[in-house]
Design goal:
four-stranded antiparallel beta sheet, DUF7154, alpha/beta, globular, 337 residues, 16 strands, DUF7154 domain-containing protein, Jelly Rolls, Rossmann fold, disordered N terminus, 6 helices, six-stranded mixed beta sheet, 16% helix, 2 domains
């Protein structure tokens, strides 16, 4: 954040040999970047994953994003050696760097009780990067859970750069004791977490909604259980989007799918002709992912938002509800808590 200072004289008084000037000081934030500006993207992947999972995911998730990427970065974590972050100017260089630093079992942790150092990697990225990280996006391929659960300072750091963290997390973690930590990090930075089988990481919906459409227009985290309905914060739709409104909902804060049955996200404005809703189900072909997506055309308006949901038990579930797009706006939407 940069601050802009402006002085405005409001009155002058002359008394004997002195001149008294009264002024107001205006302090405002000058944004270093805007949401649709090209950005640095970090691809961070666990050494516990198979090499083929990482190489396939790198190609599938990031190819074709060159128009929105200023710098690519990649790093392998969960190793007994210190991790180095590599930077690239284009996808070809990035893909070469990833394939030169694929997971190597000989470098891995020797015990499942050791927690992942994924949080430290994100912290280092924001602390030591030689490039501007305003509006940056971090994508984590997670196999091992952290042992820490306090992410207060890290969330503050990511938010100070207008950053966002997405996580693709394994349904079969290799170690660590805190499975909700990375989910909470993505929740508090307007990102998503997708729980998947390892061999399906490359097919994550995070590619289509969180990367290809990187501007978040709506972000809400809401805790639900059982069957019910809840009123969500209103949605401000600034304009009718040429590519439609791309919604994404994470239906469980763990994987694989077990208690989720269905949801219905609806929007309504009395003066709008584009009122509607988005259904998500526990269909067979979607069982490998905890994210449901849908694209819709919405008029420019403020919509009342309602969520109906159904789960098979009363376990508390934090749902992530997002709308992403590619649109030029001159403000940063607020972060969800």
């Amino acid at each position: 954040m940069k601050l802009k200072f402006k002085f405005k004289i409001i009155s002058e008084i002359f008394q004997e040999n002195f001149r008294f000037i009264f002024f107001k000081l205006y302090i405002s934030e000058t944004l270093e970047c805007l949401p649709a500006d090209p950005k640095t993207i970090l691809f961070a992947y666990s050494n516990d994953l198979e090499a083929s999972v990482v190489s396939q995911s790198a190609r599938a998730l990031f190819v074709g994003l060159g128009f929105s990427v200023k710098k690519f970065a990649n790093v392998r974590f969960d190793t007994s050696q210190s991790a180095e972050i590599y930077y690239s100017d284009n996808f070809k260089q990035f893909n070469t760097s990833v394939n030169a630093n694929l997971p190597d079992p000989s470098l891995g942790f020797k015990s499942s009780s050791i927690g992942s150092d994924s949080l430290k990697i994100v912290e280092n990225f924001y602390d030591i990067s030689p490039f501007s990280l305003c509006g940056s996006i971090v994508v984590i391929l997670s196999k091992r859970n952290p042992n820490e659960n306090d992410i207060t300072n890290l969330v503050t750091k990511v938010r100070s750069h207008h950053g966002m963290v997405h996580v693709i997390s394994s349904n079969t973690p290799s170690g660590g004791s805190q499975p909700l930590t990375l989910y909470d990090l993505s929740s508090k930075t307007n990102g998503l977490t997708d729980f998947r089988n390892d061999d399906q990481f490359y097919n994550s919906q995070i590619r289509s909604v969180g990367l290809f459409w990187p501007v978040v227009l709506y972000a809400v985290n809401t805790v639900v259980s059982g069957n019910g309905s809840t009123v969500l914060p209103p949605l401000l739709q600034p304009c009718q989007l040429p590519n439609g409104a791309n919604f994404a909902v994470t239906v469980q804060n763990h994987g694989p799918i077990d208690t989720f049955q269905s949801f219905h996200l609806s929007w309504y404005n009395a003066s709008s002709t584009s009122n509607g809703g988005f259904h998500g189900y526990n269909s067979y072909f979607e069982k490998n992912s905890t994210i449901r997506t849908g694209g819709y055309t919405l008029d420019a308006a403020i919509y009342n938002m309602t969520l109906d949901y159904s789960y098979s038990d009363n376990t508390l579930i934090k749902m992530q509800i997002r709308q992403y797009n590619w649109i030029q706006i001159n403000y940063w939407p607020p972060y969800a808590d």
